[in-house]
């Protein structure tokens, strides 16, 4: 599959740790990044929020990336020690002053983090739905620019967990905050003012010393004249280096956000190959595309009780890719809903997921779906581990 790279433990050592270790092994020892820029107060944020954002379409998709190659493992790494006069490690052909670093996308569930990630990368690497907690684990996306490499980390929505899976999701999000160069906190303009969930996240950010950018998303759903006041209300929740109003869906304000983020990254090496856009294994992406169709077509407790597992992908001599996938639910009633009358629901989910996967792989797909019951799997560590959620 193009555009993916396998990571040995998506929820153990972070992708940043792996990338920095690989660079350190190739370039020699390196010291910490320079201090972050000073953060601005609410007045400065209001001024930024008041600036008009120009519309921009989705960023052009990069050339088809490699599917294979060595997996990065994280360790120390980063810019070289400025005190001893050494310049940051630089690969052959890498321009002078090249910048690189990791950017976390955080926020409440369903604020548009995955939509923004897809817009930034120019390709669909994260599934989207109107259901809260669509993203369950961290998703890494790589944006390569002439003078920089920005690695975005889409995190599960920060919320008060109700089960073991929820605890895992929040733990992943919080851990990410400690491992990046910049934090982008997404809020929704249609909310018009902070709610309990936003205030909860603001409390979690108090101890985070990383520069924080407030991203006011979905400005296409409010009158332009309302945006500065809305941004100011959210900006009062903390100290932010900048405020950027955007429409992740339509690309409005996204180029300006990218410029802001690039300018805040330290000088450093390219962590990932130029032809790489995500570190997700192909089976994981395919499983998520199946789950996306389930999210679109089910309601109430069913979407949240679903896990999809693909244990193998078989490329047959006739060019067809055989993908057997098991959909796990927690109760027999949920299984009946997913299968539907005479299997119609499952057939439709399979048909639409197959089209998405074929578009991604550029190959003919035979998708073989099965539905099984695993009671209360969201509260069982063994089941979570089997589904790829690490403690």
TrEMBL record:
Gene3D superfamilies: 3.30.300.20, P-loop containing nucleotide triphosphate hydrolases (3.40.50.300). Residues 1-10 have a biased composition (Basic and acidic residues). Residues 107-114 are annotated as: G1. The keyword rRNA-binding applies. The keyword rRNA-binding applies. GO terms for molecular function: GTP binding; GTPase activity; ribosomal small subunit binding; small ribosomal subunit rRNA binding. It is found in: Cytoplasm; Cell membrane. This is GTPase Era. It comes from Thermaerobacter marianensis (strain ATCC 700841 / DSM 12885 / JCM 10246 / 7p75a). The gene is era.
């Amino acid at each position: 599959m193009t555009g993916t790279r396998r990571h040995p433990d998506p929820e153990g050592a972070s992708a940043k740790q792996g990338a920095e270790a690989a660079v350190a092994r190739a370039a020699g020892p390196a010291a910490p990044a320079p201090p972050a820029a000073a953060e601005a107060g609410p007045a400065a944020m209001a001024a930024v929020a008041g600036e008009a954002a120009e519309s921009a379409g989705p960023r052009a998709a990069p050339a088809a990336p490699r599917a294979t190659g060595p997996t990065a493992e994280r360790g120390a790494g980063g810019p070289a020690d400025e005190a001893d006069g050494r310049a940051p490690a630089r690969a052959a052909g890498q321009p002078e002053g090249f910048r690189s670093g990791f950017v976390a996308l955080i926020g409440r569930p369903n604020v548009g983090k995955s939509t923004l990630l897809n817009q930034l990368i120019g390709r669909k690497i994260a599934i989207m739905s109107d259901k809260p907690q669509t993203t369950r684990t961290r998703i890494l996306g790589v944006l390569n620019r002439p003078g920089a490499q920005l690695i975005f980390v889409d995190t599960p929505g920060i919320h008060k967990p109700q089960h073991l899976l929820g605890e895992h999701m929040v733990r992943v999000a919080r851990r990410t905050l400690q491992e990046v160069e910049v934090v982008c906190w997404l809020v929704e303009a249609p909310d018009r003012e902070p709610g309990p969930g936003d205030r909860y996240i603001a409390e979690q950010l108090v101890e985070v010393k990383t520069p924080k950018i407030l991203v006011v998303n979905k400005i296409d759903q409010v009158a332009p004249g309302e945006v500065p006041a809305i941004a100011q209300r959210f900006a009062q929740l903390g100290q932010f280096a900048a405020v950027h109003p955007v429409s992740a869906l339509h690309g409005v304000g996204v180029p300006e956000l990218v410029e802001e983020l690039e300018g805040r990254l330290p000088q450093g090496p390219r962590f990932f190959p130029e032809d790489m856009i995500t570190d997700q294994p192909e089976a994981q992406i395919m499983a998520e595309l199946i789950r996306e169709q389930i999210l679109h077509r089910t309601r109430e407790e069913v979407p949240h009780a679903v896990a999809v597992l693909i244990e193998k992908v078989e490329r047959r001599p006739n060019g067809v890719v055989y993908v057997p996938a098991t959909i796990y639910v927690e109760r027999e009633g949920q299984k009946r809903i997913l299968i539907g009358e005479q299997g119609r629901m499952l057939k439709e989910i399979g048909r639409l997921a197959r089209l998405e996967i074929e578009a991604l792989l550029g190959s003919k797909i035979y998708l073989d779906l099965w539905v099984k019951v695993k009671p209360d799997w969201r509260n069982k560590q063994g089941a979570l581990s089997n589904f790829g959620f690490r403690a």
